[in-house]
Amino acid sequence: MGEHEKQIKQIREIRALRVRARMREQQSSVQEVKRIEQAIACAEVKVNHEEVQAITFQRDGLAKLVSGTLVNVESLKQFNHEKLKSIKTIADTKTEVAGLKNAKVSALEHVEVCESATKQAQKRLLGIDEVVEKDLWK
Q: For the chain, what is the domain count?
């Protein structure tokens, strides 16, 4: 009987280690989701800032072009170049936000997988605890 008890205690220790490992993995996944949410918030603020900056630049540039009697070709080229540059920056930032949102979805899926694995590991540990408690091998 002593050998069975030792084996069951070892199995219980192994199961407890697995439960703790699954819980750590789940916690790290939750932290990853939080980090991604913060990155999304920062990127959205950046998009808003870039849009406001682009609108301000376009308004100021158009005012300069309209106020002059003669429109210089170089100043018109510069205006168009800066306008396209700001549009590209905004588009890149929006693409970054979309990528972060996709990463968040996959991270949330990983959290769900970790939660189910943790629950399974806890159930197995409870099963071992029941065996130890009730001495089912006798």
A: 1
